[in-house]
Amino acid sequence: MKVSTISNPILGYKLDPGEPGLSHSAPASRSVLRVLNQELSNYYAFKRKAEKEGGFIISGGIYLDLRKRGSFLAAVAGKTKVWMYIPGKKENSKGQPVDTRHISDKIREIEMKMKVETDPVKKEELKRQILLLEIAKNALMFGMAIPKYLLGILFDNIA
Fold this sequence. Notes:
By secondary structure, the chain is α+β, with helices and mostly antiparallel strands. Helices cover 45% and strands 20% of the residues. It folds into two domains: 10-85, no CATH class; 101-158, no CATH class. The protein has helices at 31-52, 101-116, 120-141, 148-158; strands spanning 10-11, 26-27, 56-69, 72-85. The protein has a two-stranded antiparallel sheet.
C-alpha cells in the first residue's frame, strides 16, 4: 500500500500598488489566514476612511481565489469590494440631467389602477408602491445616486 506524503508549498504574494501591508510568503496550509488577514485590514481601512469623512459602508465583501496547491486548498489571491456613502460627495456621477419620466409614468399607471380597485388591501399595496416610487424619484431629483441594482429591485417589487 502506497501512502502519499503531504505537500505544503510556500506561496508568494504581491500587493497591489499603493496597498498597505507586507507581502510575505505563507505555506499553503496557512494561505487562507494570510490572505484573509490582508483583505480584512483593507476592509477596515475603507471603514475608517468612510467614518472619518462622515459616511458609512453600504455594502461590501471579501472574495478569495481558492486553488489547489500541493495537498491543500489555498488562497492564491483576494479582493475587497466596498460601496460607501459619503454625504456631499458625488464621485462617479456622470453629470447628466436626471430623467424621471419613466418613474412618473409608472406612478400614473399605478394611480389609474388604484382608482378602479375596490379591495382595500390591494389599494393599500398600491399606495405603498406609489410611495416607494416617489422616494426614488425625489432621491434622483436631488442628486442622490441610487445604484441601478437597487432601482431594479424597486421596480421588481412594484411590477
